[in-house]
Amino acid sequence: MQGRSANMGARMRYLIAVLALVGVVVSTLALHVHYTNDPQPCSINEKWDCGVVNHSPFAEILHVPVAAIGILGYLAIGGLALMRQRYLVLLMALVGLGFALRLTSIEEFALGVWCLYCVISQVVIALIVLLGLGWFTAEYLALKKPTVVGPTA
Questions:
Q1: Which of 13, 33, 100, 141 is the most exposed place for a label (fewest CB within 10 A)?
Q2: Does the 2-144 domain belong in CATH 3.30.1220.10?
Q3: Average pLDDT, integer, range 33-50
Q4: 3-class DSSP state for residue 29?
């Protein structure tokens, strides 16, 4: 049974690393929008426009683009997953989810405009949180199971 748990844990952490890579790509696309005024494929209509969101005053924290923070966060989560740091992965993913939820509320209530890249990133970080919870729980339960020791002489 421990082999099955270890195999599941390996799959979860690799999937987290792949999702983190997807997050890096999406955040990089959003960062590109932040630094350009070119027409973007994610600018669909007046309610879905990445340019409006990424050029708003909310797109930076202390002059650092939010998308750059996302890139660094996803790189850290992916690296920690590959290093089997399930607790830190879960912790960082929860912080990232809170950050993403805050940005989503800004899109909804302050801007009234949605960024497709931001929504995709929201889904990615939510999936990472769910996988992180699953990985953490599976490993915890595996540690709680008693080990079977052979007969003593």
A1: 141
A2: no
A3: 85
A4: helix
